[in-house]
Fold this protein.
Amino acid sequence: MEGSRRDEEVDDAVDSLRRALGNPRRGDAQRLARAVDEKVMRPIRALIGDATQLLISPDGLLNLLPFAALRDEHEHYLIERYLITYLTSGRDLLRLQVRRQSKSPPMVVADPAFGDPALVTKAAQRNGGVKPGSAARVDYSRSSLVPCQVSAKKCARSESSYQTPAFSHANRPQRQRCKA
């Protein structure tokens, strides 16, 4: 009975945190993230030791929990300390042991054209979604993400083996090669 009561407490805490995270007007998300960490992570933190990568195979409502958003006893988000990988089952661990060569170079996508009417309409027409002369639905709430373009180019330069295509709103939807 003790285990099922604890499971219910964890589920309730996770549900409360998810509701708080989904509502930006609520001011209790950090407190709830700390409470969930206390119930879920604190009991295993000693077992984790100095590890910096967590392989998590969550069960039940924990599947819906963004572990990276939890706050530890020092009020740090888990993402600040750990690289978190989610597993669907223990079999995923077996797949991690098999090294596979990538069949293509990595791709960096940055500074997307959110809501540029001309680009959205052209893309929709190409894909058969909008007939010429008709209006496409456009979300104008987002603007260019130039810092993302800068970050993508830095990322591509940091790895000499990359010949990474980058797509940029600033340069229209033309493929560009990021060169070191």
About this structure: The radius of gyration is 22 Å.
